[in-house]
């Protein structure tokens, strides 16, 4: 019995040593005013589980963006206001057989939640002044569920990671149930992850 327990312990220890960890940041994110960081746990050559957090911002005018409103008849106006959005990602990846040097194609499934928790009071004041009526603003939320695909390049003794990835899914929060059927709202992301494996 003791030998069997010892065997299980050694097997578990070896499995832990075989597991690998990756920390990655999205190099493409700053181009579209976003910062994304992810952590991935590789359990074997085929399976990886990933979790991440993202922050959307705008470097212009102290983190302000323009929000457009339709004005009759067909004209448009803009109001600047501060906006910050956080996103949270959970993903599972399946890796195909690795190529030489460990490079490999992968597909996956993901769930991403994004919310916009706070809008400054100046926005509501400006809206009421501009349109002569108060605005009832509800912070936007997005729950995206879908699939992804990408390719993982392992560089510099398989320690440095270059990982282009694209994902597309259905936004559950924005999809609507109508009399004629379910109206799907689609969204997605494109990332170029740079990271380190340890």
Question: Would you write up a description of this structure?
Answer:
The protein is mostly beta strands and 198 residues long. It has helices spanning 2-18, 121-131; strands spanning 20-26, 34-42, 47-56, 64-71, 75-95, 104-119, 141-155, 160-171, 176-178, 181-183, 186-197. The two termini are 35 Å apart. 14% of the residues lie in helices and 59% in strands. The chain contains 2 helices and 11 strands; from the N terminus they run H-E-E-E-E-E-E-H-E-E-E-E-E. It has one domain: Porin (Beta Barrel). Mean pLDDT is 76; it is low at 59-67. A hairpin with an 8-residue loop joins strand 5 and strand 6. Strands 1-2-3-5-6-7-8-11 form an 8-stranded antiparallel barrel. Strands 9-10 form a two-stranded antiparallel sheet.
Give the structure's gist in a few sentences:
This protein has 198 residues and is mostly beta strands.
Which helices and strands, and how do they pair?
Layout: H1 2-18, E1 20-26, E2 34-42, E3 47-56, E4 64-71, E5 75-95, E6 104-119, H2 121-131, E7 141-155, E8 160-171, E9 176-178, E10 181-183, E11 186-197
